[in-house]
Amino acid sequence: MGRKVIIATKNKGKAKEFEALFSKFNLEVLTLLDIENAPDVEETGATFEENAVLKAEAISRFTRSIVVADDSGLVVDALDGRPGIYSARYAGEEKNDEANINKLLSELKDVQQEERTARFYCALAVAIPEEETLVVAGKCEGLIMNERRGTNGFGYDPVFYVPSLEQTMAELSSEQKNSISHRANALKNLQPLIERIFAKR
Question: Can you tell me which residues bind substrate (predicted)?
Fold first, then answer.
């Protein structure tokens, strides 16, 4: 298997974040864009963790490799946790960042700024052939703005305000985002597991 890990995503923005975060491990990082005929995995889980495990295990079975899959999204307190696991397709089956943000803002239009608390949440699953799948999680707390700010990032980044930095996710540089994001925090929790996994190889 070698020092190779497959990230179960075709999302170029997400792939770039993972590559940056994995660079310190001296691993060859591939994504589903590098895997021919990779199966489309239906995300039928009820939680971020269940969906991450479904993806990681299916791609690991297909490739016979170590696979990291994430399921992540936005959890808004005033909306009882929505969009949650439906974050990517909140406005409809076609993934559309602009439409998703529009729907979110319209649902929050009568909610006061201080009550617009939210967090990005990321569950990461590591599937290893013939071993138990490992799961960790990370989050990043913030508030939902009532207008977009910034042009970096993707998804809900332009309306997700990080109070400690006084900027939205989309106003941060990729280095800043990679130090505080839900995915970065999940990866920090994953780091000891990855070190342990690859120490044996």
Answer: 9-14, 72, 154-157, 177, 182-183
**Running DSSP on this structure, what letter comes out for residue 38?**
P
Q: Does 22 show up as a binding residue in the annotation?
A: no
Q: Which of 40, 71, 97, 110 is catalytic?
A: 71
71 belongs to the catalytic site? yes
Task: Please check whether residue 133 is in contact with residue 67, taking contact to mean a CB–CB distance below 8 angstroms.
Answer: no
133 is in an annotated binding site: no
User: Which domains, ranges and CATH numbers included, belong to the chain?
Assistant: 4-199 (3.90.950.10)
| pTM tops 0.85, yes or no | yes
- Is 156 annotated in a binding site? The answer is yes
- Burial grade of 42 (CB within 10 A; 0-12, 13-18, 19 or more): exposed
Contact of 70 with 159, CB cutoff 8 Å: no
103-140 pLDDT tens trace: 999 999 999 999 999 999 999 999 999 999 999 999 99
